[in-house]
Amino acid sequence: MEGSLKGKLLIALPTLKDPLFERAVILLCAHNEEHAMGIVINHAMTDIGCNELFDQLGMQNAPSTQVPLLLGGPVCPERGFVLHSDDYDAEGATASIMDGVCLTATEDVLLALASDTPPEKAVLALGYAGWGEGQLEEEIMENVWLVADASEALIYDKSYNTKWNRALASIGVSPENLNSQAGHA
């Protein structure tokens, strides 16, 4: 596969039965010849909220507005990653993913979320999805994932239950037309 998919969405096809990735929509935050890394943007955490997480981390303040907390993927689930608008930049620690979307994974961004001037838009994810050299490309060739352009609206939207359908619709695919059986030529 030529070129980086950084800033694109991966949309899980029905053939992907792994419960961690079933109906997942993943924003790819890094992609090169050696690896790929992304954040699942449609699996909300149900057992803990953002304020509880801040309490567990021993942080004095929690965000004044509720920041969504997502299960970002199975790798390093104890580590936090914040996808946020580009109005926040932690010098040397913030990576631009696409227009209007950045990624920061330091304590500074958590302090910013709880400050009087938080990023305009933000979601906090625990863990990430990762692939080794050639693994993602192989999965795409095996029809595990569809690739789509990402949009700020979809990334920050809090309607998680419909995000998979809307991601598919963004590329003209209806879930009813997808077969849950892998095809072989």
Proportion in β-strands: 25-35%
Spans where pLDDT lies below 50 across 5 or more residues: none
Q: What is the highest CATH level, the class? A: Alpha Beta
Characterize the main sheet: 9 strands, mixed
Helix content class: 10-25%
Spell out the blueprint of helices and strands:
Elements: E1 8-12, E2 25-31, E3 36-40, H1 50-56, E4 69-71, E5 75-84, E6 94-98, E7 101-104, H2 107-113, E8 122-131, H3 135-141, E9 145-149, H4 152-156, H5 160-169
Parallel strand pairs: 4-8
Antiparallel strand pairs: 1-2, 1-9, 2-3, 3-8, 5-7, 5-8, 6-7
What is the compact description of this entry?
Helix content is 19%, strand content 29%. The protein contains five helices and nine strands.
Describe the structure.
This protein is α+β, with helices and mostly antiparallel strands. The protein has a single domain, classed as 3-Layer(aba) Sandwich (VC0467-like). The chain has five helices and nine strands; from the N terminus they run βββαββββαβαβαα. It has helices at 50-56, 107-113, 135-141, 152-156, 160-169; strands at residues 8-12, 25-31, 36-40, 69-71, 75-84, 94-98, 101-104, 122-131, 145-149. Strands 1, 2, 3, 4, 5, 6, 7, 8 and 9 form a nine-stranded mixed sheet that branches. The longest helix has 10 residues, at 160-169. It is globular, with a radius of gyration of 16 Å. It starts with 7 loop residues before the first strand and ends in a 16-residue tail after the last helix. The model has no long low-confidence stretch (mean pLDDT 91).
